[in-house]
Amino acid sequence: MARIPPGKVNGLQSALSSKSLQGTRESLALDGESNSFASDSELNGYTSDRQTDKYGFIGGAQQYSEQSAEDIPPEVLRQREAKWLDMLNSWDKWMAKRHKKLKLRCQKGIPPSLRGRAWLYLSGGKVKREQHRGTFEDLDSQAGDPKWVDVIERDLHRQFPFHEMFVARGGHGQQDLFRVLKAYTLHRPEEGYCQAQAPIAAVLLMHMPAEDAFWGLVQICEKYLPGYYSAGLEAIQLDGETLSALLKRISPVAHRHLKKHKMEPILYMTEWFMCAFSRTLPWASVLRVWDMFLCEGVKIIFRVGLVLLKSMLGTQDKLKTCQGQYETMELLKNIESRYMQEAFIVREVIELPVSERDIEKEHLAQLRRWKETRGELHCKSPPRLHGAKAIMAAEPPRRQDLRQNPTIIVQSPLAIRQEGGGQEDESRKKTKEEKNGKMIREETKPSPEPDQAPALFKDTPLQESNQSLDTYL
């Protein structure tokens, strides 16, 4: 396949254009982590005495800073966790009857301790996993297509090299990332592997086991962003034109400037959209954007893109330093930090008046224009589903598919003692038989009353029950 000439543009290749992208996707060489990251030799295998931040980063542009995130009081966080546990225990009812409240809670931010589980439920990955038990294990056990295996292996060290999961070459994070990406190429051999899938899978792996991350990746590729990772990148080009049309309405000044300097959308928005901003924003902002994205669908990705473009290019004063294409690209490569902070980006995204209907209307208009100028699409993608509610409506789950399955089971010591009581009685009987030379029946000792329970287990939630620790982790 033809490759795009080198030259970095916001993490992509500067020579990208609608024409040059047609018919290839190997050209999407997502290079390094960003221009703020060091070379590969300094990254993987990297050892340092520096501690990780609250998200697992040991350095790099996405490391936590006091200005980049909002700290939630512990008591508020505990309340939110309790609310989310209640929602997860009756997910179908919340989706059917209280979806607006669920959406509001996603906008406020999912509690970190439950984010992975919530993402799996929102995306429909939980249902897919339950309905296809054993599928991931089967795919994982296969060797994979050597063509894709080789490309995936070469990409592993590029994914979040400053995160503790992926810092070591051949470490558990890179191993799981390889397993997930290889499994996807076997799951969709006609689609194969696209380099922009790697950061998506890596973000999921930071929050859930490999099997769950695989099904989350499947849902994002097939439901949220269908066609984005197919040969030719036609879907991303269409959405680029859709973004441009929406920008004309949201910020005419920014739109005119980009058109004046012949800035095709594919030049600046490809990495944004294909990686769901995971390589662009500070990490606190990435997580909040993903909370909303997996709940409400691709409109959140469009809104984030529109907010950034409007913020950087939306007034004449801001355009004084952008006298050409190069200066504009440099500006979009180095977005001011204040426009990417969690509080700002979340507020602006929620308030921006762009709906699913607006997106689909513009998408259909661009699709008609594409067919008039270029003919039929080469890759037929399934319809895009706008968020968790649409996904659940399209594939209604069974109740058992939504049941929370514990990952760790701890048996109460009291229950163990009661179950072992019969064996203790038999041993006691045998001893007395040997001593007395005859059968002696011993009365079974009654179980202690609750207030007589050993101090170690008294007033604990595990008393006299088999309780899953998964609820508390």
UniProtKB/TrEMBL annotation:
Entry GO MF terms: GTPase activator activity
UniProt region (Disordered), positions on chain: 1-48, 395-473
Gene3D superfamilies, alphabetized: putative rabgap domain of human tbc1 domain family member 14 like domains, Ypt/Rab-GAP domain of gyp1p, domain 1, Ypt/Rab-GAP domain of gyp1p, domain 3
Source species, domain of life: Eukaryota
Compositional bias (Polar residues): 11-25, 33-48, 462-473
Keyword terms, alphabetized: GTPase activation
Biased composition annotated in UniProt, kind: Basic and acidic residues: 425-448
Residue ranges annotated for the Rab-GAP TBC domain, each copy included: 109-297
Signal sequence bounds: none
One Pfam family cited in the UniProt record for this chain: RabGAP-TBC
SMART domains, A to Z: TBC
Entries under InterPro entries matching the protein: Rab-GAP-TBC_dom, Rab-GAP_TBC_sf, Rab_GAP_TBC_domain
Gene Ontology CC entries for this record: plasma membrane
PANTHER family per the UniProt record, alphabetical: RAB GTPASE-ACTIVATING PROTEIN 1-LIKE, TBC1 DOMAIN FAMILY MEMBER 10A
Annotated protein name in UniProt: Rab-GAP TBC domain-containing protein
Source organism per UniProt: Umbra pygmaea
